[in-house]
Amino acid sequence: MRNLKMPALVALSAAIAACTVGPDYVRPDVSTPAHFARAEATSSADVAAPMGEKSDAEFWRGFNDPQLSALVDAALAANHDLRIALANYD
């Protein structure tokens, strides 16, 4: 039993030592901008809804699929959390 513990302990120590970072590691300095280049150019209110729809909340109606619309309407009617989230979104 002791003969098996020593090689396992050596292998575990070597594996852990392989994960360490050497003393010469220097974290690179990365310059990041204070804001996005076009952050002020557009807002979500300025962007038109996809496929000519009235709002983002009903984007699936642009697919003109009555089965999809029925499924989403049923899910919204049955799920109070979705209704609350949609009301907060609107």
Q: Please state the overall shape, judged from the principal axes of the Cα atoms.
A: elongated
- Average predicted confidence as pLDDT: 75
Query: What's the SSE pattern?
Result: HHH
Helix content: 40-55%
Overall number of strands: 0
The Rg value, from CA coordinates, equals: 28 Å
Task: Describe the fold and architecture.
The chain has helices spanning 2-18, 66-78, 80-89. 44% of the residues lie in helices and 0% in strands. It starts with a helix and ends with a helix. The protein is elongated and about 70 Å long. 0% of the residues are buried.
Task: Please render the helix and strand layout as text.
Elements: H1 2-18, H2 66-78, H3 80-89
Task: Give structural attributes.
90 residues, elongated
Concise account of the structure shown:
The chain has 90 residues and is an all-alpha fold. The chain has helices at 2-18, 66-78, 80-89.
